[in-house]
Amino acid sequence: xxxxxxxxxxxxxxxxxxxxxxxxxxxxxRIMDTLKFFDPVLIGTFPxxxxxxxxxxxxxxxxxDREGFIQxxxxxxxxxxxxxxxxxxxxxxxxxxxxxxxxxxxxELFAQSIAVEQQNGYRHMLIEHTVLQAKxxxxxxxxxxxxxxxIKTEPAFAQLLGLKGDPYEALLxxxxx
Length: 177
Fold this sequence. Notes:
The chain has a single domain, classed as Beta Polymerase, domain 2 (2-Layer Sandwich). A five-stranded mixed β-sheet has the order 1-2-5-4-3, sandwiched between helices. The radius of gyration is 16 Å and the shape is globular. Helix 6 (137-148) crosses helix 7 (153-161) and helix 7 (153-161) packs across helix 8. Helix content is 42%, strand content 21%. By secondary structure, the chain is α+β, with helices and mostly antiparallel strands. A hairpin with a 2-residue loop joins strand 3 and strand 4 (93-102).
């Protein structure tokens, strides 16, 4: 799983059982197809195999037209269980967060007007993936154990890597040796 093209969901078909199910769910419900104009990328814990029972399917999106995005997701997903749309400002960037449940999986769409590759969630995942590739299975299990104890992903990595300060910023600055 070293050089994964996270933009192409076919990697899920070769993944573990849960990743395969996620691939099928995203396909069956045409989630990525519905979001295709917003450059959707599955990010977070499932793609890099550190998900725990409470993990959600994080999908990063990029919009040029915020209202257009809100309209599309409202039409497509507002009838889904637990649907909530929230508009927030994160690091001075207008952000739309949409949550719902599909086939027992909690889903979170995270959309900003900046390219997915420049969004911190995507950048964090790539760094975490690189770290996991460089470390052993024991490290991966330690990350999972910390997550199961209630610690979020980036703080768990920061703790295990001995990073100081804000774990989200420290992880973005991390260079593996």
